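Entry type: protein chain
Record version: 2
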Amino acid sequence: MTGGRIWSNIDWWLLVLVMALAAAGVVNLYSAASSFHTGGNAIYLKQLTWFSIGLGVMLAVVLIGHQRLASLAWLIYLLTVAGLVAVLFWGKVMGGSQRWLAVGPIMVQPSEFARLSIVIALSHYFARRDPHEPYNLRQLIPPLVMVAVPAALILKQPDLGTALLLVIIGASIILVNGVRLASLALMTAPALPLVIVGWSFLEDYQKKRIFSFLNPESDPLGSAYHIIQSKIAVGSGELFGKGFMAGTQSQLHFLPEQHTDFAFSVLAEEWGFVGAMVVLLLMLAIIIRALYQAWKAKDRLGMLLVAGATACLFWPTLINVGMLLGLFPVVGIPMPFISYGGSSMITAMAAIGLIQSVCIHRFIFARK
C-alpha cells in the first residue's frame, strides 16, 4: 500500500477527533500533576510522548493492514498469554497489584494489550465461519475459552477491573457476530453461581471496594474514600468549573490517583459540567465515527475488528466515568486518551489504527 493511497483514504474526521481528545487529556494532566512534589509536570510531557509513539503505532497498524494482522491472530494471542504469565513470575508490584513488566526503563502492562489481542483473535475466528447461521453453545466454547484464559491470568494479578473489561469486550464481539437466544441463555445461566464462586477469590481490598460502592458512608476514610472525594470534585465543578489549575480537590491532594484513574474528576472540577460534556461528546463522536466505519466495511473481518476496536474505547470510558460518579465500584479502569498511561495510550491508538486500516481498505475494495 503506497503512502499516497493511505493519506488520501484515511478517515481524517476520526483522526482530528482523536487528536482533540488527546490534547484535552494532556492539558488536564498538566493541571492534575502540577502540585506533585516530584516533577509532576513532566507527566504531561510523558503523555505527549506516548501519544506521539501511539501515532507511530497507528500508522504501523495501517501499513501492516488488518488482514495481515488477523492472519497472525494466534501468534499475537499466544504472545499476549505469555506476557501475562511472565507478569505472574517477574512482574513488578505497584499499588498492591503485580501488573507491570520492566522492559529496560519502561514499564509495560500486558493486560492492556490483551484487549486488542482478544479483538483480533475473536474476529479472525468468527470471520472464517458462516455468517448467516447464529452460533450454538458448542460452537461458542472455543471463543469463550480464548477469553477466559487471559481473563483468569489478569484476575490472578489481581486486576478485577481489567479482567471484567476483557470479558465484556469479548462478549461484545460475540453478540455482534450473532448468537442463538437459547445459547445466550445457557451462557448467562451460570453467571450467578460463578459470581458466588469468584467472590471467594477476590482480595480483601477488592471486597471492601464493592461494599463501599453499595454503602459509601460505611468507611468514608478507607475503602470509600476514592468514591467520596471523586463525587465531591465532580459536584464542586458545577456548571463552568473552578478554573484551570484551580481545583481544590486535586491541587490539595484530596483526590487520589488524580492523574490516572481519576483524571476525569480533575477535568470535571476545573471545567465543570460544560467542559466534561465537551470531552464526553468528543468521545461519543469518535465512537459514532468508528461504528460508521464498521457499517461501511466491505469485509466481515473488517466489520468485526472495528466493532471490537470500538468496544475497546467505549467500555473503558463508560466504566471509568461511572466509577467516578459512584455508579460503579472502583475497579481501576483508565479513561482512554484522558488518563495517564503509556500502555493504555498505545492500546487506544492501535485500536484507532485498526479502524483506519479497515476504512482505507474499504476504498481499495471499492475500486476493485
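Comment: The beta strands are 92-94, 97-103, 106-108.
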